[in-house]
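Researcher: Can you fold this with calcium ion in place?
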Amino acid sequence: AKIKGKNSFCFFNKDLYEKNMKRLSIEEDLNKAIKKNEFFLVYQPKINIKSNKVEGFEALIRWNHPSKGIIPPMEFIPIAEQTGLIREIDFWVMEEVFTQLKSWEKKGIDMGVISLNISPNQLKDTKIINRVKKLIKEIYIDINKIQIEITENMFIESFENAKDIVLKLKELGFKISLDDFGKGYSSLNYLKWLPIDVLKIDKSFVDGIHNDEYELIDLIISLAHRLKLEIVAEGVEYYDQYEYLKNNKCDVIQGYYIAKPLSIEDAEKFIVNFTNV
Ligand code: C2E
Ligand code: CA
Ligand code: CA
Ligand code: CA
């Protein structure tokens, strides 16, 4: 037993070592990724199930690493959050969405409302507001067409500070969406004190439908309606989920059942070809 214990301890160390090395190299490369233009956005459609129309798209970041290939956000966003690089990344995303919207506008394509994600860390920093104002002056677009997805996590450290920034973003004309609702530290207070337009039900509750668990999702939908918020269900993968959400007055759905996140070209094709769920 002693030998086995010793061995597994060795393996553990090796794993940890490799994990640290991998992390360090990602961290290093991440610093250069913006300048080297290695990030790009993919766009996942959202469908309004009442009108059967495309409501818009969510922009999701991808990293095209020179040797590792496409890296999903879960593998670098947490690192970027710890190193503070997330501010630059989130700002890059916003600038990219502005530019893309402008180009769609010029081409005469209406893609609906485009949402983008902002990390909790970002919202500690009031400087973001000045940068956003500058961007709005530089690239003139209809700000109403942009939705900012925030998560509850950002209010844990300093509610007042984060609230202040969300209020300012709202004043600038952005729509505010509360993402992953119900997953973490949900406090009904957030709904009262924040200028939220959209509630995005966490995927776990949508998964629940597939396992015949309806209580919580019903509750969240009726809560959203009582508060006159638009309700979006994410991670819809199956017909039964789609059907349930439609019959129970969910407004908008998003998920592999409709489409995976798409390249710009495919998103444009999607909007042209979409007729029915
Ligand atoms: P999220 O904001 O909750 O985004 C939803 C995630 O679920 C996306 O993963 C999307 O591709 C995935 N998804 C969509 N439909 C389905 C489905 O039907 N089934 C399943 N299993 N998954 C589905 P992705 O793109 O890997 O992003 C993961 C997370 O990374 C996002 O979660 C968000 O928290 C973060 N993220 C993505 N892009 C950005 C960004 O530009 N900035 C920041 N700060 N965070 C981002
Ligand atoms: Ca999101
Ligand atoms: Ca989410
Ligand atoms: Ca999520």
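Model: Folded with calcium ion in place. The chain has ten helices and nine strands.
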